[in-house]
């Protein structure tokens, strides 16, 4: 097997966010760097959220997928600066989030009080219910039109 950066990215495309399984780590924009160093692959990732427990799972999943693809020696490095921001999320990723029922990050505010677009009916007549949704990375909203509660992926 000849390792190439492209083939490694193809493997990384199979690693998804354990909290939002429709998003790959490439959609999230957390893969900062992929390097081939002699016989070792070095993958540098940035945590989406300080202390986010999903990051350990993501690192474990990267190792598993890389091993399954035949890469024996993989090192995962964590880059702390610059901090990840939701700006790094791909447009395709934001569309997938919305289709999954989670409002994608809105760059106006980190946690808007209201006016977040409802992923189900697209109404902006929504209100913040709780700063913490199903996980610390999300806030809980409710739509005043369709009454559905939904998660908003916090901007940071
Ligand atoms: Zn709605």
Tell me about this structure.
The chain has 156 residues and is an alpha/beta fold. It folds into 2 domains: 5-84, GMP Synthetase, Chain A, domain 3 (2-Layer Sandwich), CATH 3.30.300; 91-153, Single Sheet (N-terminal domain of TfIIb), CATH 2.20.25. Helix content is 23%, strand content 24%. It has helices spanning 5-12, 25-28, 54-68, 91-99; strands spanning 31-37, 40-46, 74-79, 102-103, 126-130, 138-143, 149-153. Strand 6 and strand 7 (149-153) form a beta hairpin. The protein is elongated and about 55 Å long. The relative contact order is 0.15. The mean pLDDT is 89. Bound molecules: zinc ion. Residues 118, 120-121, 123, 143, 145-146, 148 line the site of zinc ion.
Which features characterize this protein?
156 residues, alpha/beta, GMP Synthetase, Chain A, domain 3, N-terminal domain of TfIIb, 2 domains, four-stranded mixed beta sheet, three-stranded mixed beta sheet, 4 helices, elongated, binds zinc ion
Gist?
This protein is α/β, with parallel strands linked by helices and 156 residues long.
Reading side by side through the largest sheet, how are the strands ordered? 4-7-6-5
Amino-to-carboxy terminus distance = 40 Å
Tally the beta strands: 7
Mean pLDDT: 89
SSE layout:
Blueprint: H1 5-12, H2 25-28, E1 31-37, E2 40-46, H3 54-68, E3 74-79, H4 91-99, E4 102-103, E5 126-130, E6 138-143, E7 149-153
Parallel strand pairs: 2-3, 4-7
Antiparallel strand pairs: 1-2, 5-6, 6-7
The structure holds zinc ion.
